[in-house]
Write a structure and sequence with these properties.
The chain folds into three domains: 111 residues, Butyryl-Coa Dehydrogenase, subunit A, domain 1, CATH 1.10.540; 108 residues, Butyryl-CoA Dehydrogenase, subunit A, domain 2 (Beta Barrel), CATH 2.40.110; 147 residues, Butyryl-CoA Dehydrogenase, subunit A, domain 3, CATH 1.20.140. Helix content is 50%, strand content 16%. A hairpin with a 2-residue loop joins strand 2 and strand 3. The chain is α+β, with helices and mostly antiparallel strands and 380 residues long. The chain contains twelve helices and ten strands. Helix 4 packs across helix 8 and helix 10 runs antiparallel to helix 11. Bound molecules: coenzyme a persulfide. Coenzyme a persulfide binds next to helix 8 and helix 12.
């Protein structure tokens, strides 16, 4: 059920204020310290951001996808690392549980996820299993009332903060049908977390290795049946891809606004940059592409809310929006000229930040494969 329009508008207005007044002034500090300040995390908890997508009966806001992408658009207007603080709780870290969890599993974990008391992570990728996610080698071997979990997960967002992981591990033979999903509390024996990786951008959002060494996971922590893990992961990613596409649109809108402000102020040859048609062409191309991506995201979210399949559309939204924001960021650097290359202006930071969108939650090439597969399957 959507929120009533007034409540939702008030939520969006509060988020817009929070982004403008609290988060944007902290962008440089977060990039330098590679950490989002604890007081910001606390404010995010108070605003209910960790539970945006969690059903109301478990203490979340229960937003529809249409509403969630509107929130994601707003968070695109600042350093993407801020959204990552609650991003895994709202998306890939919780949705396997929401989609496939038992009543008991949901009752145990969802209220704490929704409140932000705990952080969750999604552990699919491995050193040898990136795009080919059906080839995961982490093993879960049944031993009475537990599975013994062993293996290494790589590039796991928020792993160093997480109390609960959704882990995809092999319980059967090779391929997608041999994979199962588990809820793995971080305090079980044999769980160890690597140091946060040094990254090209998105400082403040951490990714780490997660190691499991004979970790005893109770049978009751399996999500769904044995062999259903890959499909659960794919359904979680379908949803996550649409959310990321919305963030891309938000960042593009921010970059366009920054570029227009700079082009209106900066004078060369006796007039503002914005008066030059070659600069206008860059602004026009960026605006057109951002509008197209926005329309695709909103329409796909609406379609998802009706219960129709959106595998193709979510992949197309992620593909187009992430490539689009890369081009928009590149033009923004160009419009800023030398200043675009200098750290003080923040444009080069966003340029580096957006590079990740074409890689995580499925590379552009994986989205192309999904789009082509679905289009051919549907007969065009
Ligand atoms: N929803 C539900 N089920 C899905 C699905 C989806 N979106 N995508 C695939 N499946 C099902 C298939 O229907 C198939 O089931 P059946 O055999 O019962 O018909 C099963 O899952 C295997 O699918 P498929 O054969 O397409 O698997 P592949 O190994 O070829 O993998 C890709 C498909 C490449 C698309 C998948 O591995 C992928 O998305 N990789 C990228 C992973 C990723 O995004 N990683 C980022 C890490 S998280 S930040």
């Amino acid at each position: 059920m959507p929120l009533d329009p007034e409540t939702f508008d008030a939520l969006i207005a509060a988020i817009r204020r929070f982004v403008a007044e609290r988060l944007r002034p902290l962008e440089e500090r977060v990039a330098e310290e590679d950490e989002v300040p604890e007081e910001i995390v606390r404010e995010m908890r108070e605003m209910g951001l960790f539970g945006l997508s969690i059903p109301e009966e478990f203490g979340g806001l229960g937003l529809t996808m249409g509403e969630e992408v509107r929130v994601a658009l707003e968070f695109g207007r600042t350093t993407p690392a801020f959204r990552s603080v609650f991003g895994t709780n709202v998306g890939i870290g919780s949705q396997g549980l929401v989609m496939a969890g038992s009543d008991a599993q949901k009752a145990e974990w969802l209220p704490r996820i929704a409140s932000g008391e705990i952080v969750t992570s999604f552990a699919l990728t491995e050193p040898g299993a990136g795009s080919d996610s059906a080839s995961v080698q982490t093993r879960a071997v049944r031993d009475g009332e537990v599975y013994k979990l062993s293996g290494t997960k790589r590039f796991i967002t928020n792993a160093d903060k997480a109390s609960l992981f959704t882990v995809m591990a092999r319980t059967g033979g090779e391929g997608a049908h041999g994979v199962s999903a588990f809820l793995v509390p971080a305090d079980l024996p044999g769980v160890s977390i690597g140091k946060p990786e040094k990254k090209m951008g998105q400082q403040g959002a951490h990714v780490c290795d997660v190691n499991f060494d004979e970790t005893p996971v109770p049978v009751g922590n399996r999500l769904g049946e044995e062999g259903e893990g890959f499909k659960i992961a794919m359904r979680v990613l379908d949803r996550g891809r649409l959310h990321i596409a919305a963030v891309c649109v938000g960042v593009a809108e921010r970059l366009i606004a920054d570029a227009v402000a700079y082009a209106s102020e900066r004078k060369q040859f006796g007039k503002a940059l914005a008066d030059f048609q070659l600069v206008q062409a860059m602004i026009a191309d960026s605006k057109t592409e951002a509008l197209a991506a926005r329309a695709l995201v909103l329409e796909t979210a609406e379609r998802k809310d009706t219960g129709e399949p959106t595998v193709l559309e979510a992949a197309a939204a992620k593909y187009f929006a992430s490539e689009m924001v890369g081009r928009v960021a590149d033009r923004a650097v160009q419009i800023f000229g030398g200043a675009g290359y200098i750290a003080d202006y923040g444009i080069e930071r966003l340029y580096r930040d957006v590079r990740l969108f074409r890689i995580y939650e499925g590379t552009s090439q994986i989205q192309q494969l999904v789009i082509a597969r679905e289009t051919i399957r549907n007969g065009g």
